[in-house]
Amino acid sequence: xxxxxxxxxxxxxxxxxxxxxxxxxGPKTAQRLSYFVLSQxxxxxxxxxxxxxxxxENLGYCKTCCFxxxxxxxxxxxxxxxxESEQICVVENVIDxxxxxxxxxxKGSFHVxxxxxxPMNGIGPEKLKVEELxxxxxxxETKEIILATNPTLEGxxxxxxxxxxxxxxxxxxxxTRLARxxxxxxxxxxxxxxxxxxxxxNRTSID
Length: 207
Fold this sequence. Notes:
207 residues; alpha/beta; Helicase, Ruva Protein, domain 3; 2 domains; five-stranded mixed sheet; two-stranded antiparallel sheet
């Protein structure tokens, strides 16, 4: 079924729009992905649809560290349960946590904010997982917070906000920031091992 002057079937138009909503996917790429899906056999396409369905139905976020978990009802997921809680590395997203985890340079736990403060995009602290972080700090087990937000304007603003509220309310917790070896304006996920390692080893205390 087609719509108006657009010769593409409505179903294809909807698929292109859906792909376009993904981060980093422009109109042309969305079209190519849509045509690729159409070129696949039904079995392969249904596998993709089923995988998307299972992710949304079976996965959620840990109530403590806010990492991905299949145990949505537990207070602690396997990811944070086995980690030392004395040192928490705060990151913007799950990908950053995985990047640091795979490098092996951080042995403590993580806390995923699921975003960064961005007034232009209507994202304030209340839309991030800050309250969950405060609950963790209230347990009194944490000795150091490593602010590992991205070296972008949004990441810096988020780091400054967290520094303010943590330093005011938890004076016994050491606050550190990754060293400036990370390229300004880039995300942690694109950093190589040496850059990340140096950033962690040379992290600085925040006064």
